[in-house]
Amino acid sequence: MPKFFSQQRVLFGLVAALSLVACGQKGLLYLPTLEPVLPKETPKNPDAPVQQGRITTSLVNLDTLTIAGQLAQLNPAQQKSWQALLTRPADAPERLRYVVFSGDILDKSQSLTVLSGYVKNTTIETSQQRQIIAGTYLRIRSLETGLNRVPSLMGAAETYLKKMPSVKRTNISDFLIESDDNIDLFLSVEKK
Fold it and tell me: What's the rounded Cα separation, in Å, for the pair 117 and 96?
């Protein structure tokens, strides 16, 4: 008899708990989480993509690519200079546009000569061309479009280089790729 009552008590408790759960109440089956929720750690691997808000950074290896286009002057510290550079011409083809810089884009104290154009096999008439040198690049991608993203990309690049001493600038060969969806800034680097 006592065994029957203990089994009946367990069965009654189980039915009561299930009915409470079915009604949305915290019954006997409710177990609170004891572990605190911690923020995710930033990966220590410099090759791993790191997301800072709407900007991601990663290291990529690229092959040599020849870009043909028009030369222009750029003062990296002036928003107006960026606006003139990143405004697409009306006859621009619907594809990626490349902007190849003559020097260090992070050095805002100097004016740069830039080549704005497309991959060489395009039909745009031009006599100017530059090469993107094969090597390792730090890619900083804006997940949003707009001219105001460029200073944020440069700030993210500076922050990344400060936090990752194993990655250093080398063979300054910076360029930018603009598409309808995002802007990618590429800085030439090497891993120590």
Answer: 9
In a domain, 44, yes or no: no
Helix axes 79-86, 149-163, angle to 10 degrees: 110
What is the C-alpha separation between 133 and 172, in angstroms, rounded? 10
CA 80 to chain centre: 24
> Does residue 43 form part of some domain?
no
pTM of the complete model: 0.65
The structural domain count of the chain equals 2
**Gap between the Cα atoms of 121 and 104, Å rounded:** 27
Q: Are residues 78 and 159 in the same domain?
A: yes
Q: Do 183 and 142 form a contact (C-beta atoms < 8 A)?
A: yes
Q: What is the pLDDT of residues 11-56, one digit of tens each?
A: 555 555 555 445 554 444 444 444 434 434 444 455 555 555 578 8
- Maximum CA extent, the chain: 101
Q: 27 lies in which domain range?
A: 1-38
* pLDDT 10s digits, 79-135: 677 777 766 665 566 567 788 888 888 887 888 888 888 776 655 565 688 888 888
Residue 181 lies in a domain: yes
Q: What is the pLDDT of residues 169-187, one digit of tens each?
A: 887 888 888 877 788 889 9
Q: Are 188 and 134 in contact (CB under 8 A)?
A: no
Nearest to 135 by CA among 169, 112, 92, 105: 169
